[in-house]
Design goal:
- The protein contains two helices and no strands.
- With about 70 residues, the chain is mainly α.
- The protein has helices at about 1-30, 35-60.
Length: about 70
């Protein structure tokens, strides 16, 4: 039983490491865009737009109403 929990912890550590690696790689790719105010504004607009799109799409698919 102890070996089972060791494997579960290993998968959790792998998931956390993988997720942090992906975010670090994406941040390194996007970091040069922070130098220009126009690019930064466009990047923030794209992120807000994608978040809104996902939010409203999921809300419509799940049938949530306000």
């Amino acid at each position: 039983m102890e070996e089972f929990f060791n494997n579960v912890l290993r998968y959790c550590r792998y998931f956390i490491t993988f997720t942090l690696g992906v975010f670090f790689a994406l941040f390194q790719w996007v970091q040069p865009m922070f130098n220009s105010p126009l690019r930064l504004t466009a990047l923030i607009g794209i992120l807000v737009g994608l978040t809104g799109f996902i939010f409203f799409t999921l809300r419509a698919m799940l049938g949530f109403t306000v």
